[in-house]
Design goal:
single chain; Rieske Iron-sulfur Protein; five-stranded antiparallel β-sheet; three-stranded antiparallel β-sheet; 1 helix; 11 strands
Length: 147
């Protein structure tokens, strides 16, 4: 989490608009979005997601820490029936929304891969980094390396 003493985070060039803030309700449906994961020089398509929990927006790579499958049982459905935990529909792993830490199931102690997200002026943004790229930037970087 950012240090609030520095003031609110503001979107900057390169940030990706994910959705309007009003689309996310506490413990409700999340929003999926395309990402490219990078390992060394290779990239692969994947998805990220954002959810709201206790008023704060959190973002993660949509991949279980146990076996790399997507978590949502229906598109955007990441929370368990209580709305208190994120849950892998395939393996039943249960994660804390605020940390991504697995607190139950086959990957206990594992962790979801966090994506840096921010909420500003009624929008939720994802801030890509070296490990998680937007699909268009990954294509540009791949093409540049080939030249």
């Amino acid at each position: 989490m950012p240090d609030p003493s520095f003031g609110p985070l503001l979107p900057r060039e390169g940030d990706v608009a994910v959705c309007a803030s009003e689309r996310l309700t506490d413990g409700g449906s999340g929003v999926r979005f395309a990402v490219q994961t990078r390992s060394g020089r290779a990239t692969r398509p994947s998805t990220g997601f954002v959810v709201r929990f206790l008023g704060t927006v959190y973002g993660y790579l949509n991949q279980c820490a146990h076996v790399p499958t997507e978590l949502d049982w229906q598109e955007g459905q990441f929370f368990d029936h209580s709305g208190l935990y994120l849950m892998c529909a395939t393996h039943g792993a249960v994660y804390e929304p605020e940390s991504g830490r697995c607190v139950g199931g086959p990957c206990r102690g594992g962790r979801l891969l966090a994506l840096q997200v921010l909420e500003c002026q009624g929008m939720v943004y994802w801030r890509p980094d070296d490990a998680f790229l937007p699909p268009d930037r990954a294509l540009i970087q791949t093409h540049a390396r080939k030249q």
